[in-house]
Design goal:
Blueprint lengths: L1 H15 L3 E2 L2 E2 L1 E3 L1 H7 L5 H14 L2 E4 L10 E5 L1 H19 L1
Antiparallel strand pairs: 1-2, 3-5, 4-5
Helix pairs in contact: 1-3
């Protein structure tokens, strides 16, 4: 559930983002900034959900900051991976019904 809410929040910001790099729209936030948007969670809960989404593939992160010492992460959604994931869930549900 946490991952779904964060994914939706990233999508919300990507829709209005004008930052396009490498053919993909990006947004950036610190964990503290995400926590301000999602005040019902701690920073550590947000970190865990973000890392889960990164490892599963629906979100991609990078560092496009001018200074490599700047650790603010940039986020985008891998919509192709999300479609594959959705197809897998639909197939799994279909097999349970049959």
């Amino acid at each position: 559930m946490n991952e779904a809410i964060i994914l939706q929040q990233i999508h919300y910001w990507l829709v209005s983002s004008s930052l396009e790099i490498e053919g993909r729209k990006w947004i950036y936030n610190t964990y503290k900034d995400w926590q301000k948007q999602l005040p019902f969670w701690s920073e550590s809960t947000i970190k865990r959900a973000m890392k889960s989404l990164e490892s599963q593939g629906p979100i991609v992160t990078s560092n496009f900051n001018r200074s490599k010492m700047e650790k603010t992460k940039w986020y985008s959604i891998n919509y192709e991976k999300l479609v594959q994931y959705e197809k897998g869930i639909n197939e799994s549900n279909k097999m349970r019904i049959d």
